[in-house]
Amino acid sequence: MTTVPVLLYHSVSDDPPNWLAPYAVPPHAFRAHLDRLQDAGLSVVPLARLVAALHGGPPLPARCAVLTFDDGYADFYWTVAPILSDRGLPATVYLTTGAVHAPGARPGGSLLPPTPMLNWRQVATLDALGVEIGGHSRTHLPLDTARPDRLRQEVADSKHELEDALGHPATAFAYPHGYHSPAVRRAVARAGWTSAAAVGNALSSTTDDPLRICRLMVMRTTPARTFEDWTHLRATRTGPLHDSAATLAWRTYRRLRARLGSPVAGPPRQ
């Protein structure tokens, strides 16, 4: 079994808005992370290679990592993409399609607080440069609390919107907040997504579930020692993971709050 750190970033910025700051990594820290991956002998491979291996395809290199970015913040275009291009590294960006906007327009249509997001022209450029563009729902709704019709819209409609913009299939999905359930995973599979990334804060592996790929969330406060442990494949857990009693209880609570009209998102769970 090959274990794989699939790293989850959000924003890479020195000056993020306050609400995003805990999830924003400064550019100098991001460069240092890439250096640590190289120093540990890890080759960065496209997410598609991991997904292919999970579906029985060619084996992965013995030591590799995957880079993923959630939501679709504008700093990916201006900051991250040039860094990755200079180093020749692949990455996947999961877009909340309702937050992507036309050039010159204001973003709207998502539950994310206001902040600069990618526009469709930038998305097309990233796609042409080889960055994999994946889906992250339409509005960033916690999908495991959504009613069936809303779930279908978030999962299937976002895929159609993304593919119409790109002009080719999009196959990689990521659950907003990392939240999923058996019903959500079935909806993702029915919509035609061939992989879906969760969180779990665990190493992925070649025996991981392709519809709940484990990732390690990199925060602004992630200690250097913790990141070093990840690069040396030392983590407390390795996928595939299964729902714990705490996860099931938290999902039940959030569903009840959603039905009462006061939904909560909270920190990502597996």
From TrEMBL:
Keywords: Hydrolase, Signal
Molecular function via GO: hydrolase activity
Domain NodB homology: from-to ranges: 63-270
UniProt key word S-adenosyl-L-methionine: no
E.C. code: 3.-.-.-
Enzyme kind, highest EC tier: hydrolase
Subcellular location: Secreted
SUPFAM superfamilies hit by this protein: Glycoside hydrolase/deacetylase
UniProt keyword Hydrolase, yes or no: yes
Protein name, entry field: Polysaccharide deacetylase family protein
Organism: Kitasatospora phosalacinea
Lineage: Bacteria, Bacillati, Actinomycetota, Actinomycetes, Kitasatosporales
